[in-house]
Predict the 3D structure of the following.
Amino acid sequence: MFIAANWKMNLDKFSISEFCKNLHNYKFSPKVEACIFPSMPYMDYLNNLIKNLPISVGGQNCHYKPDGPFTGEVSPKFLVDNGCEYVIIGHSERRINGNESNNEIKLRAQLAVNSKLKVILCVGENATDREKGHALKFIEKQLLECLPNDFKSLIVAYEPVWSIGTGRIPNAFDINEMHMHIKKIVLNKSNKKIKVLYGGSVNVENINSILKITNVDGVLVGGASLKVKDFLAIYSAAVKHLNSSL
Ligand code: 13P
C-alpha cells in the first residue's frame, strides 16, 4: 500500500517545518509506504527534516535529457543526487499547463527509469471522454503512448482530470474497472505486474471507501496532503485497511 503526497506548488520552508514537527511522534507502519513530493527548492530541506522517518521524498517531474540548455527543468540525476527515490511523470497539470505530449512523457519516464528513479506515471481522461463512455479507450491510448520501452517496475496513477481538486470522484465500479484495465494493458505490453494508485479529490472522508476497491494499491493525494492531520489520517486509514484485510 502506497500513500503519495503531491504538494504541487504549495508549502514554504516555514510550513514544511511545522508539518514535519507533527510527524515525529507518529508510529509509521512498515506495511504502508509514504512519499512526499515537495516543491523542488525544498527537496533537500524536507529530506533533512524527515531523514529518521520511513517517508521518502520524490520529484514532481524530471526532464528527458540528463543535462544541457533547458532553463527551468530538472534532471533526474539531480533528483537522485538530492535523495529522491520516486518521481511523478505526466501529471495532467504538466500536460495541460506545460503542453507535455505523450511522446515527451514517455522520454521523461524512460530517462527517469534509466536514472534509477521509481516512476509514478500519471494518466487520466477529461470529463467529456468519461461522459461519452470513452474513458477506457482514452486511457489505453494515453498509457501505450507514454509507457517507457524498458522498465523493471512502474507505478501508474489513475487521476481523472475532472476529479482533480473538484471534490468529485468516479464511483467504485469505474475506479476498479479502470485500474484493472491499466494493469492488463501493462501486462500485455511488457509482461510486468504493476501497482495502480488512485488520485483525484482523495480526502479523509472518502479514503476508506477508495481503499476498499480491489485494484487500488494506494493513493496520490493533492490538497488533503497539505495538512499534516489529514495526511496522517489518510495514512492511518491505509494501515487500518491492511490490518482488517489480513
Ligand atoms: P487533489 O487531491 O487536490 O484533487 O489533487 C490530486 C492530484 O492531482 C495529485 O497528484
Notes: The chain has a mean pLDDT of 97. The CA atoms of residues 140 and 182 lie 7 Å apart. The pocket of 1,3-dihydroxyacetonephosphate is lined by residues 6, 91, 159, 164-165, 199-202, 220-224 (CB under 6 Å). The beta strands are 2-6, 33-37, 55-59, 84-89, 118-123, 155-158, 195-199, 218-221.
